[in-house]
Structure to design on (330 residues):
């Protein structure tokens, strides 16, 4: 198993299957910009992705999460899920949920085990404003209900932006608690360069717990597994939720994720400026062993700990080059 320079083991592969999206979330891909998307021929085929997964599995990767852009915009994603599910036990999806209701049955039949739905508001108007198009909360909820009916493990991601949706923390708990769906609140991160991030727009983990504690006793559980991004919490009735506090409580020391972009680049950190070109090897006739060695060398030379260094960089006024979140997939 490869370990990086800081002793972190490679375990988790995130695959972005497209950089396109049907939303324009203000915290990720805000409206009003001219986005340059990958051309069709630049994007890895399902067979190429499945090959990378097969090789990554031999290096210890046990979990693959499909993301984007919006992964459900990639046609016949179920065919990719079927290929990947033959390689690893745990195939998961992160989606904005807009197309989920119609697509989740085929995905579940193909072997999808878990789905994380990003839903930043339970109010139609706030949701529409945040995601940059007219959307009804009920449409996303229908996808969640259908996923639950099909027996998938469902989580809900809420990126919290101060004074936009930060007053809805308790509403999320009260809504999803009876459904047994784990909500994960995410501190607004400074990914990319376009989302107008500043520290004073971050609603911190501490404030999130304070909001929930107005009504419930919150018991911290810590990290459920090594490498887990979310801190776990439980309420007295057994309901669990999570907080991903990458800004105020960085967790680089346990980061075990490798990211593959839709155009075939490997990124070892959400905040890396550049990726490593794997597609060149995939399309240049490289043997599996060469690809394996390339992945190992990328991982072993890794020393990223951006979230731990962020405050120092901010203090120095440094602005590192960063790739947009919709290219990397979270
Ligand atoms: N389109 C899919 C979705 O929205 O779930 C998958 C890709 S999206 C980039 C993955 C996750 O990143 C989502 O849960 C989204 O809320 C989160 N995200 C995007 N921008 C963020 C930011 N600036 N800070 C924190 N989380 C962010
Ligand atoms: Fe929103 Fe996800 Fe699309 Fe980003 S990729 S704009 S978070 S739906
Ligand atoms: Fe991992 Fe980079 Fe995030 Fe740190 S900042 S947890 S190294 S992705």
């Amino acid at each position: 198993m490869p370990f990086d320079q800081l002793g972190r083991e490679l375990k988790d592969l995130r695959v972005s299957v497209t950089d396109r999206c049907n939303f324009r979330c203000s915290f990720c891909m805000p409206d009003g910009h001219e986005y340059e998307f990958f051309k069709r021929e630049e994007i890895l085929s399902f067979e190429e992705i499945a090959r990378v997964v097969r090789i990554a599995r031999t290096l210890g990767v046990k979990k693959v999460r499909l993301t984007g852009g919006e992964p459900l915009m990639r046609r016949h994603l179920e065919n990719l899920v079927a290929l990947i599910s033959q390689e690893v036990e745990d195939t998961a999806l992160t989606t904005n949920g807009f197309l989920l209701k119609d697509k989740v049955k085929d995905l579940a039949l193909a072997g999808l085990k878990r789905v994380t739905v990003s839903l930043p508001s339970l109010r139609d108007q706030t949701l529409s404003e945040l995601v940059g198009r007219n959307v009804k909360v009920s449409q996303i909820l229908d996808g969640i209900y259908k996923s639950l009916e099909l027996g998938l493990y469902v989580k809900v991601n809420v990126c919290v932006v101060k004074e936009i949706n930060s007053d809805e923390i308790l509403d999320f708990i009260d809504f999803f608690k009876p459904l047994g769906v784990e909500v994960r609140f995410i501190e607004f991160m400074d990914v990319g360069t376009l989302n107008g991030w500043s520290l004073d727009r971050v609603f911190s983990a501490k404030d999130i717990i304070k909001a929930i504690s107005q009504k419930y006793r919150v018991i911290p559980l810590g990290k459920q597994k090594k490498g887990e991004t979310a801190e776990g919490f439980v309420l007295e009735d057994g309901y669990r939720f999570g907080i991903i506090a990458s800004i105020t409580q960085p967790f680089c020391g346990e980061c075990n994720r490798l990211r593959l972009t839709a155009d075939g680049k490997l990124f070892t950190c959400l905040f890396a400026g550049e990726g490593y070109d794997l597609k060149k090897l995939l399309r240049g006739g490289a043997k599996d062993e060469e690809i394996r060695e390339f992945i190992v060398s990328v991982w072993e030379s890794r020393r990223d700990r951006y979230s731990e260094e962020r405050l120092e960089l901010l203090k120095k006024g440094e602005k590192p080059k960063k790739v947009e979140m919709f290219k990397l997939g979270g």
Q: What stands out?
A: The chain is about 30% helix and 20% strand. The chain has a mean pLDDT of 95. The chain has one domain: 4-328. The longest helix spans residues 137-149.
